[in-house]
Amino acid sequence: MRSMTEADPGIPPAPGEEQHICLALANSALTLPGLHLDRLATPADAEHWLLAQGLTPAPAGLQEMCAAQVRSLREHLRSLLASRTSAQPAHPAALAAVNDALTRVPTARLLQWDERTGPYRSTPHPTTAMVDHALAAIAADAADLLTGPDAPRLAACASPPCTRFLLRQGRRQWCSTRCGDRARAARAYARRTTPD
Length: 196
Prior knowledge:
The protein is of the alpha+beta class. It is 43% helix and 13% strand.
């Protein structure tokens, strides 16, 4: 798979990625005809992706261990989304990974103390916990998507070999115009080549 640091083909986001960060993560690795792209292939790619999504406050020199955690959650999310779209039971390891990410960081703002101004509340965001906070936000979004009102609209792109997920809008079954055009062309070709 090509890394994000190589030429990015400028694939537009799939419908629903703007509302659900978990879809953006699931779709950060994609396969299209003649293209395999991984937007998290290297630690620098993963850090760039987290920053672009607003999940980390500043560059922190992400290491491979942290990038691997993000890629691992992506695979577990893909498994859960695939289970949901195919009406199959979820894999227990995928559920455990999302629940682990959900419970790894405090959800309440903690009490802090400033020597000059006294007590205040904030969510701690030390560099060492940035990835945990990002993963918790993604996991919470996934739980909300899979149990919320958008869940029935969740679909896998209907244009093989595309591997992206989307939220259907009307009858649209494709993640992009490119995939829709490819599917329509394949149907037209099949009609022309099928003997009467």
